[in-house]
Amino acid sequence: MASAAPAPADRMAWGGIVNRQAILAGVLLVQLIAVALVWGLQARPGDAPPVFLSFDAGNADTMTVADAESTVTVTRADREWTLSNGLPADGGKIDGVLQKLSDPGPGWPVATSESAMRRFEVVEETHQRHVTIGAGEETLADIYLGTSPTFGRVHARHVDGGPVYAIGFSNYEAGVKQSDWLQKSLLQPEGEVQSVSRKTSSAEWTLAWTDGAWTSEGVELDQDETNTFVDRLRRLNVLDLVDAELPEEPSTAFVVVDGAGAHELALFALPDDDYAATSSRFEGVFGISSYIAEQLDMPLEDLGVDASEEDDSDGGSEGSSPPAAES
């Protein structure tokens, strides 16, 4: 039996559905074509945002940062960074800055006029930082850094000319003092501490790591208190470089034997409750925390069992090597 032909109303409904699908398909096709055209235009090399800087940070072996008053230079030899005064520099910080400057990301120039360059402080007469990075005889970067348009960005321009860019960097990351790049842990012991001897006119004593515990002749040491004391030496950080006349005698002085041998460390009380330190391993005077310095200036009796406020006096520290400082 032959099926009945669709009613006129059904044919109209079906035709409407087909027409709507065709329209949607056409709209989708137009959208895809538009996206393809936009992508193709953006992908053209001539329209890509220019790159302000691009170099291999691992090849850099010198960096100079200057402002109107100060200049600091760091150099790398045998994979170690040093300051111009011979002190060790903070290699991690330097490598981070180099990596950031080597690829600050693409961006369109924000200004090209002379008046804008002066306003953004990226000209020879007026700039906030002048950064030069080299690798041997090659100059990898030579730029001026100026004002900041927003947090985490700074106006920048090549010294030899060109427009002004806004790159991802901050002037505070490019300090112009030696202490800005100093390795702040340079006074810390190298490797395991084997002994600490206090050498002053008022008191002399020695802490020695023996058979898994700290010992000292004539005193039963509280191991927790003694570990805390030695940890202060392990964590001793430099705050800055100090240009001050030191007293004739230090407040306290130590001979520390560590993985690199013996070295002398002297602490000096300065006016205004400041403290400075010197080390036989490095030339220079280093500012340190007053709180830590005062905690290191203590008699041996304070490390004894009777001086501890703990009830448990057998808190020995077991092990085959001196305990490391907690991170």
Keywords:
327 residues, alpha+beta, 8-stranded antiparallel β-sheet, 7-stranded antiparallel β-sheet, elongated
* Low-pLDDT sequence parts: 27-43, 310-320
The main pleated sheet reads as: 8 strands, antiparallel
Structural class: alpha+beta
Beta-strand percent range: 25-35%
Query: H/E element string?
Result: HEEEHHEEEEHEEEHEEEEEH
Radius of gyration: 33 Å
Distance between the termini: 90 Å
Rough outline: elongated
> What strand line-up does the widest sheet have?
10-9-8-12-13-14-15-11
Structural notes for this entry:
- The strands form two sheets. The protein has an eight-stranded antiparallel sheet with strand order 10-9-8-12-13-14-15-11. The protein has a seven-stranded antiparallel sheet with strand order 3-2-1-4-5-6-7, with helices on one face.
- Helices cover 24% and strands 26% of the residues.
- The protein is α+β, with helices and mostly antiparallel strands.
- It has helices spanning 8-43, 91-102, 114-119, 178-181, 223-234, 290-296; strands at residues 62-66, 71-77, 80-83, 129-135, 138-145, 154-158, 165-167, 195-199, 204-210, 213-215, 240-241, 252-258, 261-269, 275-279, 282-288.
- The longest helix has 36 residues, at 8-43.
- The protein starts with 7 loop residues before the first helix and ends in a 31-residue tail after the last helix.
